[in-house]
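lol so apparently i was supposed to do this last week
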Amino acid sequence: MTNVGFIGLGIMGSPMAAHLATAGHEVRGYDVNAGAVERLVAAGGHGASGVTDAVAGAEVVITMLPNHPHVEQVVFGSGGVLETAKPGTLLIDMSTIRPETSLEIAQAARDKEIRVLDAPVSGGEAGAKQAALSIMVGGEADDFAAARPFFEVVGKTIVHVGPHGAGQVVKAANQLLVGGIYGLVGEAIVLMEASGVDAGVGLDVLAGGLAANRILDLKRESMVAREFQPGFRIDLHHKDMGIALAAARQAEVALPLTGLVAQLVAAGRAMGYGSLDHSALLKVTEQLSGRA
Ligand code: NAD
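anyway here it is w/ nicotinamide-adenine-dinucleotide bound
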């Protein structure tokens, strides 16, 4: 069994760290929110007083933080992972962040003989709780092989997608698809309702045809009922659309639909829906048609 330092015990990190503790690993968790640390202790882990404490003695360090500034602070900051981890430590960043930061971490870690993977996830809170996440991993093949037993504790679909940063690029592709599909399901609902057609009945038919997709399967009823409890917040999707557009710029490609979806998500935030589930893109489309 392995000593694991786990930093970031929020909606996703909390159940993931608990699964690792249940699997028999010695998990030392840290979060700036003391209540989150207490939850890990109640789930069989150990509480750490800071990043340095979580990393001390760890063979594997996992970060699950909101965005790249948080990851940079924890990894590069004073008393952070790169300063305190012993050579040979495997640092697995499972946050969704911009690929450049993953590359910067990999570069800086090389000098310290710390091994690094970017390993963002898909599957949401339910996937984290059920240990059924999809994990897209960037980095060296040997490090992926070493990390695989830990991924298997929290995930079901685990794929090495390429070198450092590739995991984040695949995650950006996931987020532009998810945002686009939500936007179009919202438009389908607005069209049907404005035409006097029962949108719930209409979407039931569509979910059996060529337009079938998991968002229709999982979310059509809650969208038609206007239930927008998160889930995954518009605020976080706004961050992810920014990552997708920045990655497109870096790759020197034009993604026009992604640009449009990013603007719809930004509009949702500006309209005050940032803390609602991303399916609330429907409200943006309704508002554009004067139907809110
Ligand atoms: P969250 O905000 O619930 O959790 C992040 C945690 O990090 C918080 O508990 C916060 O207190 C902690 N934190 C912030 N700065 C810290 C620091 N310097 N040191 C220690 N702890 C710190 O977010 P989440 O929903 O768990 O998401 C985490 C990451 O996973 C994000 O990048 C998100 O985009 C991604 N993600 C989320 C979902 C989802 O459905 N929620 C799904 C897939 C991927």
